[in-house]
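Exercise 7. Given the encoded structure of a 265-residue chain, write a plausible sequence.
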């Protein structure tokens, strides 16, 4: 558990492609990376797993694959997203015995060559002297998504929420910092993070506008991308350890928070 499972569309040249047998090109392939089992064993590193589901539902098949390059150390509670038309896997953050607590690098896995690259990330230096505020820092149990920038049309990774990684996962006395829900976007060309969001707008009557109302800080939230520019975020766990039952939406074109879509209740 505590792993990621991503839908991929490997090319025929990829070792992940379900090429055996006729008609297998229509099968669905899910890529699993990392995680931890009930005994505390951590997974990941240079090992990835695929789950192939037949297009007609006749069978499912697990396979183990070895990778090369600058692979992440075994980890869990990280995020992973497919980018570049599902030809690469992007991994950020997480926890693990070998994971550095201040590691702000990201990892790219080429799904054709199965080669990892470790790439540093930076704060957006154009946003002034408080560069640290424009970097999400090391974190775990966060939520991430991919969007197309509304002006450039290029892919960006969006990240928000989560916890600071634990230095010792067996020390129950340790206090982790919970992050707010301010979205960060990562330019995949410059590898620079930018923080988005501002204080809620207040009308002359003293009422906050419905736009950009930031949800409560949380971790372990579920998310689903319902359209190309709308991400629904469901539940999660608050800083007090309470289960949240709300649904909010993030406008991926503006990176502003909205209330629950009408008609959900």
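Solution.
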């Amino acid at each position: 558990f505590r792993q990621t499972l991503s839908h991929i569309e490997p090319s025929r040249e990829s070792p992940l492609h379900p090429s055996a047998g006729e008609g297998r090109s229509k099968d669905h392939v899910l890529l699993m990376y990392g995680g931890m089992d009930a005994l505390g064993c951590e997974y990941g590193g240079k090992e990835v797993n695929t789950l192939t589901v037949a297009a007609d539902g006749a069978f499912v098949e697990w396979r183990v694959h070895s990778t090369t390059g600058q692979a992440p150390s075994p980890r869990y509670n990280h995020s992973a997203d497919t980018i570049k038309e599902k030809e690469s896997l992007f991994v950020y953050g997480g926890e693990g015995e070998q994971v550095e607590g201040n590691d702000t690098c990201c990892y790219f896995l080429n799904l054709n060559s199965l080669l990892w690259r470790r790439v540093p990330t930076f704060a957006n230096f154009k946003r002034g002297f408080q560069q640290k505020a424009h970097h999400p820092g090391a974190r775990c149990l966060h939520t991430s998504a991919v969007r197309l920038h509304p002006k450039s049309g290029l892919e960006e990774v969006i990240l928000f929420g989560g916890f600071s990684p634990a230095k010792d996962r067996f020390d129950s006395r340790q206090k982790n910092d919970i992050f707010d829900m301010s979205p960060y976007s990562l330019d995949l060309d410059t590898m620079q993070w930018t923080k988005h969001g501002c204080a809620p707008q207040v009308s002359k009557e003293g009422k906050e506008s419905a736009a950009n109302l930031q949800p409560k800080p949380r971790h372990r939230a579920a998310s689903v991308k319902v359209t190309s520019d709308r991400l629904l975020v469901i539940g999660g766990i608050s800083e007090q350890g309470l289960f949240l039952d709300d649904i909010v939406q993030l406008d991926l074109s503006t990176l502003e928070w909205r209330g629950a879509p009408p008609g959900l209740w």
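Remark. Confidence is low (pLDDT under 50) at residues 199-204. Students should compare their own answers with the one above.
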